[in-house]
From TrEMBL:
Lineage: superkingdom: Eukaryota
Limits of the Aminotransferase class I/classII large domain: 123-392
Protein name: Aromatic amino acid aminotransferase 1
Gene Ontology annotations of biological process type: alpha-amino acid metabolic process
Organism field: Mytilinidion resinicola
């Protein structure tokens, strides 16, 4: 499409709706930083800079920043289209492939005037603009709007701002879009509320609750948040109890590999949910750290493929992914959170927000007087890794074998390889767990019916747990049926669940699973059926022990179902009751941090 045609197409799109009525009182009052407003003048060639309070870059103790890094093709991708049988090709590849690497160097001074092309310590370690390090901001913005989400359907498209990770992005979005509410001080009809999945990432809840925000859980199924039905989004919004405060105007959702349940939301379901958000004026905060980790091998024959994108990203891998809510966001009511935590490392504390420009500008004002911008060390290293040196004489070295940067195609190849490794891990764990769902009891031929001809025959099969092979993410959500346990009549089922959690931590099993109760956003859900569930993360453990640990999880569950004495349960729980399972909600925060991986 030519630029003229692109302009015509953009003009035909609707303007994003005005959502400023949802801005908090403090966010509406924020003004541009008077200090930051000077920064655009610093880049004028030959300017005598006496205005800013910047330290001298020549006194920074770092001459260069160097690291040994992977080449983008280190890991083997898995096929974009499902293969049948799905495990044949996957099983033939090791979880980890070639350790090939190169060296990245960020120079002290690149000697480049253009800030969008400059990657050096002189600028990266200096005070900077709140939008992010200019060269990295420019790359991420271009990649986001041209490759990740090329069809955002409102005029002018979205804007981005770099953040200190998705948690920081969420915190700023909540600060921008909700007023603090205090019981006994503020009227109940001003109390804000936020919609979340029935089970959700608890750091989001821990961020919202202290602001006085009510948490409104929405029922989920294997896909994720339900649009209709009892407890679905329409039911919650239509039948909202206004004695609890305002009808929710915010939604927090993880739509791919949902944490903790691993649900992956189809495009059809997204359209249903988005229509309801339009009807009830809800802003969608889409947290998508696992978007690149979508697993074709877990797709069933009955699952419809995502529709072909209206405009290609330029990469078959990206085109194959279920698109973001941004792809259907014709009103500009989606605030998307992305992160480098799963694609580079969590310690980077680097991510970005994508949203309509008016909202991003308000979040920019918050950033100017809080975090200001992410770490300059991190931004420079990632910029050099991907973009590489911008001139032959700048002294830098990028992440490609020839010293240039990975560029967009190398970054996408890295994402493909990561998806491949995590998909192989998922299948390795799930194949083992598939074999342990059922407890088999057998008896001798004389005790069986006449149809048994061999010495041993199956008497009874009892399914003790079940799970759905995840279509994306890093987790397997396992639901146990404690009504089949031999002690079900003498021990409360929730107590059996707590004992199982402790039993796994003992010899010879030594497995730590995350109890479902730490992901319950309300006491009602925690006390309802959360104790039936456990979340397993196949991402964190080393390659060479993943299968062994998976076997130990299964063996522990099978052995626990053979316990027939109540005294053994009492012994397990005597000194070591698991956190957040038998105790109150206040104990959730620490374990949620330990097992969140977000």
């Amino acid at each position: 499409m030519t630029s003229n045609n692109a302009n015509v197409a953009s003009a035909a799109l609707p303007d994003p709706v005005d959502l400023t009525h949802h801005l908090s009182r403090s966010t509406k009052k924020r003004e541009a930083s008077s200090v930051k407003s000077f920064y655009k003048y610093f880049a004028i060639p030959g300017i005598g800079q006496l205005a800013g309070g910047l330290p001298n870059a020549g006194y920074f103790p770092y001459d260069t920043l160097e690291a040994k890094v992977a080449l983008p093709n280190r890991f083997k991708p898995t096929p974009i289209k499902p293969i049948d049988p799905p495990t044949s090709e996957l099983a033939s590849a090791r979880i980890s492939d070639s350790p090939a690497s190169t060296r990245v160097v960020v120079p002290h001074d690149a000697g480049i005037v253009d800030p969008l092309r400059t990657i050096d310590l002189t600028t990266a370690l200096q005070y900077g603009t709140a939008q992010g390090y200019p060269s990295l901001y420019y790359f991420v913005r271009k990649f986001t709007l041209e490759n990740l989400h090329p069809t955002i359907p409102y005029k002018g498209g979205a804007e981005i701002i770099l953040t200190c990770g998705a948690t920081d992005g969420f915190s700023k979005a909540i600060q921008a879009l909700s007023n603090e509410w205090s019981e006994g001080h503020d009227p109940i009809d001003e109390k804000p509320a936020m919609l979340v999945e029935e089970y959700c990432y608890m750091n989001a809840i821990q961020t919202a609750r202290p602001r006085g925000i009510s948490i409104a859980p929405v029922k989920i199924d294997d896909e994720g948040m339900m649009a209709s039905g009892k407890g679905g989004l329409e039911d919650v919004l239509e039948n909202w109890d206004f004695s609890k405060g305002r009808r929710p105007h915010l939604m927090y959702t993880v739509t791919i590999g949902q944490n903790p349940t691993s649900g992956t939301l189809s495009v059809a379901r997204r359209k249903e949910i988005y229509a309801l958000c339009v009807k009830y004026d809800v802003i969608i905060i889409e947290d998508d750290p696992y978007w690149y980790l979508q697993f074709p091998s877990a797709v069933s024959d009955t699952t419809p493929p995502p529709p072909a994108p209206a405009k290609s990203s330029g990469f078959p891998f990206l085109d194959s992914l279920i698109p973001s809510y941004l792809s259907i966001d014709y009103q500009g009511r989606v605030v998307r959170l992305d992160t480098f935590s799963k694609t580079v490392a969590p310690g980077c504390r680097l991510g970005w927000i994508t949203a309509q420009p008016v909202l991003v500008e308000r979040i920019l004002r918050i950033t100017e007087t809080s975090t200001q911008q992410p770490s300059g060390f991190v931004q420079a290293m990632i910029a050099e890794l991907i973009m590489g040196p911008q001139s032959r004489s700048d002294g830098g070295r990028g992440g490609a074998a020839d010293g240039s940067g990975w560029k967009v195609d190398g970054w996408v190849r890295w994402l493909e390889g990561l998806r491949g490794n995590y998909e192989r891990r998922m299948n390795a764990m799930c194949d083992i767990m598939d074999g342990g769902k059922t407890l088999v009891k057998a008896g001798r031929r004389g005790s069986l019916s006449a149809v048994a001809d061999d010495e041993w025959a199956v008497v009874e099969k009892t399914k003790i747990y079940d799970f759905v092979r995840p279509l994306g993410g890093m987790f397997v959500w396992v639901r146990f049926d404690f009504t089949t346990h031999p002690l079900r009549k003498s021990v409360p089922l929730a107590r059996l669940s707590a004992a199982l959690w402790v039993f796994w931590t003992t010899n010879p099993y030594k497995v730590l699973a995350a109890p479902g109760s730490i992901f319950a956003p309300t006491e009602e859900i925690r006390d309802g059926d959360a104790w039936e569930c456990f979340r397993l993360c196949f991402a964190a453990v080393d390659d060479d022990v993943l299968e062994d640990i998976s076997h130990r999880f299964v063996d522990g569950a099978q052995a626990f179902w053979r316990i027939k004495k109540k005294e053994k349960i009492d012994e397990l729980l005597e000194d070591d009751a698991p956190p957040a399972m038998l105790a109150g909600e206040g104990n959730n925060a620490g374990l949620a941090m330990l097992t969140g991986f977000c």
